[in-house]
Amino acid sequence: MEESEFEDILDDWFIESLKTYKDLHVYQLEHPTQVIEWTSGKTVCVAGCRPSKNEILELRLPLKLFADENKGLCAERDFKVVHGGFTDVPVHCLRHIPGTRCLVTSDGVSAHLQVWDLGGDDSDVIQRTGSISGRRRSQTEGRTRIAAPPTSLPQILHGAQSCDVRLSQLTSGQTLYDLECDSADPLSSLLFLSGDVFLAGCSNGNIYVADTRTSAAPQLSPPPVSLGESALWWTADASACPDPYSSRVVRLSSAAEVVVTDLRNPGVAVGRARLDVATRGCSLNDVTLSWSPALNDCLAVSGFSGNVLVLNSSLWGAELQEARPLFEHRGHTVSSSARSDALVASHVWHPDRARTLLSAASDGSVHVWDWVDHSGSDGAT
């Protein structure tokens, strides 16, 4: 593309963005990241994924984003590095322990995890403080996934396959719980539904729900039998719910088919849709799927392209239909400094601000954006 053509596209998108974004701020990392994790309502952690030495950074979001009134009087519109450190391995998974200054990371391949101290007011250095051993039946199947409980308990859930999942104590490394499972299905997702109940999503579409307080067998929920028979892989997420066993589960397949079920009746699809995206060459580890924590029925999908799709699942029924995005963030594609096809590597919803998301792309760009809903169809919880 000629330079003048690219500038015209950028200008057109900027004019359009004035109508579609309440806020939009950009930051350029030296190297791309595949992880974005909130450490507070105003700070996030990112980390490099190169095979060699990588940075781990805690970034403070632009203060102008949080100036809901008199934004013009707030001059600071840039991201700021507040803490930083280095790791000798790539970071493919990173979790913050809520209420603490502790991080846990995984290189995605090894079963072992790294434990980090984020630093505080007296130090701007992120330092490694320990490690946790895991177990893997196979070193070639699946990427290690980790999940932190929604409390400040010094515990971490981790595993690469359904038979590997365990809950470990951070300081001692003691195993507190093992998922009793005979299968060795590669994991695609791992998350807590409450302080004690967690969900393990497998790449074949199976979902295990287990309670760490009991030795009872986990609840197995296969995908509805009529769906996704030709899918190469599935990933999953679950909605926040006071009763974890009443949560809604959303599954996304390699064929860009989205299926919503309810854990109370997991064999029945309550919503089905197909995304209008190119799926060729897209792997499980490229895609991020997430429910909004503050908007009813809204979810976001990224990784199929340089865009992030915001979708309203309440518009879907049991019959398969084409999904029309409620909003589409095209900023990474349009503003790619490499003039090439930047792919979104990760995204995350803000825990409190209903329409604020962060996204990171393969060109090292990080965007924080607050989108405007013109349809009026998304209900804030």
Q: Key features?
A:
381 residues, 6% helix, four-stranded antiparallel β-sheet, single chain, mainly beta, 28 strands
Quick structural summary:
This protein is mainly β. 6% of the residues lie in helices and 39% in strands.
Give a structural overview.
With 381 residues, the protein is mainly β. Helices cover 6% and strands 39% of the residues. The chain is built from two helices and 28 strands. The chain has helices at 3-20, 331-334, and strands at residues 21-28, 37-38, 43-47, 54-60, 80-87, 93-96, 102-106, 113-117, 127-132, 145-147, 155-159, 166-169, 175-178, 187-192, 197-202, 207-211, 219-221, 234-238, 248-253, 257-262, 265-274, 288-291, 298-302, 308-312, 327-329, 344-349, 356-361, 365-371. It has a four-stranded antiparallel beta sheet. A hairpin with a 5-residue loop joins strand 12 (166-169) and strand 13 (175-178). The longest helix is centred in the first third of the chain and has 18 residues, at 3-20. The radius of gyration is 20 Å and the shape is globular. The model has no long low-confidence stretch (mean pLDDT 88).
